[in-house]
Structures are given as C-alpha cells and as structure tokens.
Fold:
Amino acid sequence: MFQKPSIKQVLTWSAIAVLGVVFLRQRIPPAVRTILDIPVEMEFAFVPWLLLTAYWLVQERNSATKETSESRASRLVHVVLVNGALVLLFLQWPGLTRRFLPANAFLTATGLALDFAFVSLAIWARATLGRNWSAEVRIATEHRLVRSGPYCRLRHPIYTAVLGMYAGTMLVSGQLHAALALVVVTAAYCRKLRLEEAVLTKTFGDEYAAYRRETWALVPPLF
Structure:
C-alpha cells in the first residue's frame, strides 16, 4: 500500500531536486533552460512561497480525523489546477513572457510586500484553525465553527491569502503567464469555496447562515 511521505522525506527530495537543477543546468536542453530561467526578482518572490510550504508541512499532522470528505476526483481537480497555476506563475513559458505591466522597482516592491503580508495572513489563519484545518473539503471529528482571529471578518482567509500571494507575485513578474496563473487559481478556489460553503451550511445550519451574514467570503467589501 502507498504510504504518505514524511515531512523529512519531502524536504530531502525537494532539496535534491533543487540541487540537481543547479548542478546539471548546463546539461539541460536550451529550450527547457529558457523556461527555467527565472528573473532575479521572481527568485525573491519565491521566498514567501517556500515559507508557506514549510509551515504547511510542519503543521500537516495537526489535523483531526475526518467524518466526511470530498471525493478523490474532486480533490484531484483542485490539486491539478492549483499546482498547474503555481508552475504557470513562476516558469518562463514561451509565448507568455510578454509584459503587460511595466518593469519598475515600485511594482516589484509592492508585489513582494503583498507576498509577505499574505503569507503572514495564511499562517495566522492556519494557526487559528488548529486541528479543524484540512487540505480537502471535509468535516472533522468534533468539528467546530471557528470565528476567531481572521475568521471574525473572513470566512476563507487562507484562500484570500493564497490569491493575494498570486496577485503579489504577478505584480513582481508583470508577464502574461503570471496573469493567467492568477485566473486559473481564482477559478480553482472559487470552485472549492462553493463546495466548502455547501458542506458547512449543511453541517452547521442556522449558525453558519448567521456567520455568512456577518462576514465576507474573500475580499471585504467586494465578496
């Protein structure tokens, strides 16, 4: 039976992959090397994403057992969309490197500031959820409706944070591939948001209906 890799294994293999790309860079075909030739400012933008990934891996085991969960097919759709968007966000895809934003220090600094601000929101929200958190849409054993921390104003602050990080990185990039990545990931999280709202409404009934009336889903005061 397939066993889920440990945090140590994930970090080890990730480090090996990164080192492999660095040392074998000259052996990579020119066409592939062009795709991997990430601008310096995007390397800085990658730092908050690494922080987010590291924190999520550390906290991964702090999750309660589930009572109900979305189907594997539904979860797979979300994983493919989100990871595909992340690859689209950073790599230099041929035909998608034309700039739609000017290259200037102000936009780069603004984008990096947004990245670090939103990764802080994501970590705050994840810490507030505690064992109620899950990567999939599901109801945990003894699940409770969390309304503290960022959840007092936002129903899905982690989604807000991830979308905000995509937007910040898009400002740093200024290229079409990053804008397309934001569109793809927005569609993915809007889909997941609808699924999660339906599950929470079914589970908590009137309590969740009242919570919806008092809060915003993603972006106050727009949505």
In short: The helical segments are 7-23, 30-36, 40-59, 72-90, 105-129, 157-173, 176-204, 206-214. The chain has a mean pLDDT of 83. The domain at 38-214 is CATH 1.20.120.1630 (Four Helix Bundle (Hemerythrin (Met), subunit A)). The longest helix spans residues 176-204.
